[in-house]
Design a protein that fits this description.
- The chain is an alpha+beta fold and 128 residues long.
- It is 23% helix and 28% strand.
- A six-stranded mixed sheet has the order 1-2-3-6-4-5, with helices on one face.
- It is globular and about 45 Å long.
- The two termini are 19 Å apart.
Length: 128
């Protein structure tokens, strides 16, 4: 019998010594932890806002792939921006990964400190 709650790991998915799973499948939903501009070992990679954002979404893509999903299955997105000045660029890059009907979305600004410029977590629907 399949466990009702499963951690999701796979090729290229960030591995971290911190106490969290990259994603958890619970029933028909996959909850992806906050992803940022980091390598496979969870080491942060500071960069321009655009490069950090793209790296963030590529980390999410690898987690979704490991779950057998893609961005079209994402139903909710939470975005965290370090600075208001990146709002327009955030929306432009966001549209490269999501299209209509867009997922439900919340965006928080000024909550990241100085470690990264961008972080995103998502919830995806894995049902049929």
């Amino acid at each position: 019998m399949k466990t009702p709650i499963q951690a999701i790991y796979g090729p290229g998915v960030i591995k971290s010594s911190l106490p969290f799973s990259p994603a958890i499948r619970a029933g028909d939903f996959v909850f992806v932890s906050g992803m940022a501009s980091a390598d496979e070992n969870g080491q942060l990679i500071p960069d321009t806002f655009a490069n950090e954002a793209h790296r963030t979404y590529e980390n999410i893509r690898r987690v979704l792939d490991a779950a057998g999903l893609d961005f079209s299955r994402v139903v909710q997105v939470r975005c965290y921006l370090a600075k208001q000045e990146n709002w327009d660029e955030h929306n432009r890059i966001y549209r490269e990964y999501f299209s209509e009907p867009f997922p439900a979305r919340t965006t928080l600004i000024g909550c990241l400190g100085d470690l990264v410029k961008y972080e995103v977590d998502v919830v995806a629907y894995a049902g049929s």
